[in-house]
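Two proteins, back to back. First:
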Amino acid sequence: MNTPIELVVLDMAGTTITDDGIVEQAFQRAAERTGIAERMPWDEAIDYVRVTMGQSKIDVFTHLGGGDVAAAERATAAFEGAYAEIVAEQGVEEIPGAAATITALRDAGLKVVLTTGFAPVTRDALIDALGWHDLVDLALSPVDAGRGRPAPDLVLTAALRMQVSAMSAVAVAGDTASDVATGRNAGAGFVAGVLSGAHERDALASADAVLNSVVELPDALTARDLLRCAAAV
């Protein structure tokens, strides 16, 4: 018998919140302001940013800076500042139907936690902009958990904070290979990739299901007898 899901852990940018290239724009501004990517060709640097979408930004910048942690910290601060600037300039929108889907999951008795590779200041700015503070049970950044993706810490911390009965009662969904890996590494009972963000189907192939967007998650859980109450959106 399948273990019913008690907790859904959802990524933010690209999964529940539209990205539209904001991460890459913020990276470019941070690189210009700090020179963090000057040791490698620009195309190589931006490709690394794309491949590591979803991971902790300090980890990404540490790699780009050749292991210089101080430089990575400056670049991360510049990135977070640039991201906030772009959000203020362009606004931010949910993935169509994301809020309704989260509401449906919670109405079905599940806890919902948002996770991100962003620092808390950026995470909270996005949640503020969308008015989502009362929509979810918790939002976590790597600093809240220990390590960023693909380590299991964010999912494990969410499970501990929400007091789930077992990791098999946790579902994870995200738009990057790192999201899928962190769910797998945490031993989540169901891991979904979504095609609304950074990575395409091939990169998400190790997920239990690849969905067009988070809106399909309730039906995916119901089809597998993991959601006892149908959560129609």
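And the second protein:
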Amino acid sequence: MVVALSGDRLTKVAGAFSTTTWERTHWRQPAFDLTGTWRSNDGGIYYIRHLDNNKIWWVGLSDDGSGHNWTNVLEGEVSYDNFGGVQLSGVWFDVPRGTNRGNGIVGFEVRYGDLVKNYENIGFGTTRLKRIS
């Protein structure tokens, strides 16, 4: 089959395929709600709230939720790429519940339902979050 591209439209020029024209639509993955409780690969528990405007807030607590080593909060947002991917990015800060005092920028992407870290500007120990409720 041979097709010609003009703007947002493909038109069949030659070939046996029955469809003759296709128009581009701006496909977007349906909203992916991240609200819930998540367990990290480094023993922490994260409580995430995903708002309707795609803003994200979380609190992460070390040691199965006690927060004695580290407790952090994040303000961020969820975005969707043209291929259906879901990303979360934001600014995080350790708070005095734990002993750590870091802060930085971190990004995650959704892979098979998990959140997998794909960016950090400074050491953020968690690399994977799995939803537990």
